[in-house]
Amino acid sequence: MAKELSPRKVPSLLSVNEFADLPDPSQDLWVDILHLSPPCQVFSPAHTVPGQHDEMNYASLFGVGSAIKKSRPRIVTLEQTFGILHPKNKNAFYGLIGCFADLGFDVSWQVVKFQGYGSPSRRTRLIILAACPGETLPHMPQYTYTEPPLSTTSKKPYRTPNKALSSIPANAPNHDPQNPQLHRSNYVPWDGSVICGCILTGGGIGLGLPNGSRGMTNRELAALQTFPLKHVFHGQEVRRQWGMRFRLLLGRFFWGV
Fold first, then answer.
1. Cα separation, 126 vs 96, whole angstroms
2. Which chain regions cross the lipid bilayer (predicted)?
């Protein structure tokens, strides 16, 4: 879906089917680089109990072909849980790859650990790269960060939560450490000198500072998700915005953005 995140972003919410049905008689709609993040919950290794939206989330995976056909991109990137590679999900994975192959796209895939690109929190995802006919298929960039004992001149030690949090200026947007809501609970301290677990919209590592003194602001949580400090969040569901978003740092490695 295309969702409104700020007044300067996409102005409406459309299902992939509605997007595919948009009138484009002159074929003016054209996308250079298309990124897709279909719902992943139904394929997640943590998904052990059937969910209310499983059927819809499963079906949405196959909207990929409709989105590509409509937007006619040169390059496509797609993020999905690595759980889709499990044998029980093989039909879904083969069907997803078929969405690209049926349109003549070259395609490759790789399971990626985002901490290897500078994320201070762990996240392992399947990344699919695809190129339209006649276009060169891009390669997955090499890791530039590693475990501290293995660091070299070409690979830095993992970027830590402490380093990410210390870079936030007091006047950063979406940053209000004095908010009373951040001081209402007791938070368990954790070690910010090593990369932390995956940050989730519903809880993550407890949503408190490493020293346990208060809850983390949206800016601090977004920093652990590699959002630029200048990015401004709008709307009511800020935590869903940073929690569900593809890691921006990987876009920088691919396209320098």
1. 12
2. none
CATH topology of domain 20-147: Rossmann fold (3.40.50)
Backbone CA torsion sign across 201, 206, 212, 214: positive
Residue 198 annotated as catalytic: no
For residue 166, the one-letter residue type is S
Dist CA 121 CA 35 (whole Å): 22
- Which part of the chain has CATH 3.40.50.150? 20-147
- Residue 91 tokens, joined: 């039909």
Nearest to 158 by CA among 110, 117, 124: 117
> pTM of the entire structure?
0.81
| 200 pLDDT tier (thresholds 50, 70, 90) | low
CB-side exposure of 212: number of CA atoms within 13 Å?
A: 6
Q: Average pLDDT of 156-168?
A: 95
